[in-house]
Amino acid sequence: MANTNESGGEGPRLLEHEYDGIREYDNPMPRWWLLTFAGTVIFSVVYLFNVGPVGNGKGRVADYEAEMAAAAALVPTPAGVDPAQLLALADDAGAVGDGQQVYASYCASCHGPDGGGLIGPNLADNVWIHGGAPEAVYKTIAEGVLAKGMPPWEKSLKPEQMTNVTAYVLSLQGTTPTNPKAPEGEPYTP
Amino acid sequence: MSATALPSTGAVSSAQLESFSYDDAVVRKFLWATFIWGLVGMLVGLIVALQLANPIFNTSLEWLSFGRLRPLHTNAVIFAFAGNAFFCGAYYSTQRLLKARMYSDFLSSFHFWGWQAIIVAAALTLPLGFTQAKEYAELEWPIDIAIAVVWVAFGVNFVGTMIKRRERHLYVALWFYIASIVTVAILHIFNNLSIPAGLFKSYSIYAGVQDAFMQWWYGHNAVAFFLTTPFLGLMYYFMPKAADGPVFSYKLSILHFWSLVFLYIWAGPHHLHYTALPEWASTVGMLFSVMLWAPSWGGMINGLLTLRGAWHKVAEDPILKFFVVAITAYGMSTFEGPLLSIKSVNALAHYTDWIIAHVHTGALGWNGFLTFGMVYWLLPRLFQTPVYSKRLMELHFWIASFGILLYVVAIYSAGVTQGLMWRAFDVTGRLAYPDFVETVVRLLPMYWLRVVGGSMYIVGMLLFGWNIFMTWRRRPATYVVPVITAPALEKKYIPEPEYGGAPAPVGLWGRFASATWHRKWERMPITFTVLTVIAVVVASLFEILPTFLIKSNVPTIASVKPYTPLELAGRDMYIAEGCFNCHSQMIRPFRHETERFGEYSKPGESVYEHPFLWGSRRIGPDLARIGGKYPHLWHVRHFEEPTSITARSIMPAYPHFLTKTINFEQIQSRVDAMAMLGVPYGDAVNSAPAMARAQAAEIAAEIERQGGPSGLSDKQIVAMVAYMQRLGMDLRTPASTVGMTQ
Lengths: 190, 742
What we know:
The complex is a heterodimer. Chain A is mainly α. Chain A has two domains: 14-73, no CATH class; 78-187, Cytochrome Bc1 Complex, Chain D, domain 2 (Orthogonal Bundle), CATH 1.10.760. Helix content of chain A is 44%, strand content 8%. Chain A is built from seven helices and five strands. In chain A, helix 3 (83-90) crosses helix 7, helix 4 packs across helix 7 and helix 6 crosses helix 7 (159-171). Chain A is elongated. Chain B has helices at 25-53, 66-98, 105-125, 141-163, 172-191, 208-243, 250-264, 279-291, 293-305, 311-316, 318-341, 343-349, 353-383, 390-423, 436-441, 444-473, 507-513, 516-522, 525-549, 565-576, 591-597, 632-640, 664-676, 684-705, 716-726, and strands at residues 17-20, 194-196, 202-204, 484-487. The longest helix of chain B is centred in the first third of the chain and has 36 residues, at 208-243. The radius of gyration of chain B is 27 Å and the shape is globular. Chain B has two domains: 18-473, Cytochrome c oxidase-like, subunit I domain (Cytochrome C Oxidase, Chain A); 565-737, Orthogonal Bundle (Cytochrome Bc1 Complex, Chain D, domain 2), CATH 1.10.760.10.
């Protein structure tokens, strides 16, 4: 194609063609740009043959399983709860106070702000669907009851939050909620 | 403003001179449409930003909730604002670059009015809940057909103009226009293929993994060929015009154009990293995105270096300031794009506000500022009077620049905060923020900052409109229509002197590097168009064919069954309300996700998902395994008033679900359409309404038994509850262990 060299060999060459007054230089492509482009292509080829299904990489499922295995090794299995300790906590104002905050955040939407029951059952009466013993209440909170729509909480709440909220629920026994739901389940007497 | 015309080269000297004029009336129309729809789109953006900052802005009108307005915002700014801006600049520059009036004034007019009618249709149907649930392809099938027709009219008009051109060679701006026009047509048609199930209801012919693949093949390339290549074309015309200097490098134009067009089309799967998409596709998407970095920057270099020796002009000329910021924003977002496509980066950024910040750097900076600069440059030429106020232009520039800065800094912070909070574990091995709403309310101050930044941008938009209006008011009584004379193209091409009379380059490489071969393509517009189509289609097929043909991509799961008719009706409500705009249904294989939401999603779970509803954003929690997690009554109360369950929730309330009735008879047509797509519906093909009524009665009785309101058996809420309670349940049934291959 036709090139002109406007200023006698100095500076970039201006191509002769023009479109509605627009002209173009015949500058070479910047070297750093070409090297960047080549670099990304080389990276891609290398990556393709080292990672993922094409090469010898392990893949996302294997990575996930490794992540889970590493986590399982780190997290200690929670110790069992002691019913006597739970009953003692139910009389401990500090523990009950903390439990009340946990209750307000996570439980009140279904069991009512004062435990009178709403979507979930009344917690203030002495009638229980899944047992009213301290360890049974703890178990229901920890593991949930999937069939009834009670979520398990042990993965979300910290161990002391678990025991404290159990203590708070136990402390609701004998209180009189403003709008109690009808009793459901079996009576429990300690 | 324009450079001095050169004496024409020998090729055309002997041809007969022809007289003609350019059609600027249609350009003026597109200019007005650009401003008006831009303002509308941005105001809807402000409303949705407010809705996220405080849910009271969802109002009690069901048509104005976030899920319905968010698609209106994205469609309006992409297709109405950026679309009209592209047409405005393309109609102006194409005629001049080809020295020809548009091929058909009728087609120009049809294109303009057809496009505006489509926008109005979108603005009406999206709030009404008519949506295909595919991002940036939400519009329902009748509108999709209209888009295809209008787009083809545009294409015919454009190609016709190229054929009757009086300029032998095609300038680089036109290459980008060609690529945009043909590729958008291909993307639009193949992503929107669907089976109608009513006037404003259809189901994608693809399901699950394949639908996700097609959608993001489309979605990513809508960004590429609707927001990038058209605007690069505009840049190549208006930047050298405004700077009054030559483009930096012709050879760079060639290499970055072809590499961009060829590589872009592969990159879509990076929107689906760690999802149920086959891993090979995800890897290919990442690598082609990384390779796109340099081709994208080729455009930035050619734009910015066109200012070499002219930087002093930028200080005085607000138009050049707009262009410089636009091109810089383009450079930043096309560096960030490859970065975000790297799997490990994407693991943090996906589903977060980071992506929102990324696209707004592009939309507000690149598309917005290039449009503003272009329109300001066009104003005196189209309205034939000086621009009303240069000071207002300066003010617009500065207020909008700081608006963008405030917007993106706030939303980048929100995105990273959110991503880090989701994945944080405490020392006991539990999620540090198990309550999803904690990760939402932490962002609210940033959402308010976005409202401020976005408002500043809109104030700039108002100054823009005022300047356009006042300039228009000072227009002459009648516009002067200059008569142009130019020689017609000779039938036979008389070659220009090869290599400018310089010695011919040596060897094969020398001849290749001289780009003479490309010069030849530039004088063959149809060949050029065909080559562009080949580049795009071949690259697409390399990914599409394996995705559809390799069975092992989607291992089947025996326990996965079609939705019941009532669940399907609930799913249609989920789609109509735009729930997928805030809730994903795709759990990635990460410990923090499986701890939070349950087992990661498998490809085989989505085989009946027409369309797929994996989502791209988690403003609320993932719902892939929400089924059975809560009692029916929980959902009833939560839809009626989300804050009654989660005090700080920002979800809109849906009390009308409890009062509006289900159209049971309509469910039959929905089931039939699904059955046509191969979903094994069995008995439901004959008795969908009866089956739905029976299930609705069961759910309503259970809600009442749980202490909820009575008389819900024909209300929409039971369909929604049915759908919610089904999600993820296929893998929980005992049979799930039998047919699992993964």
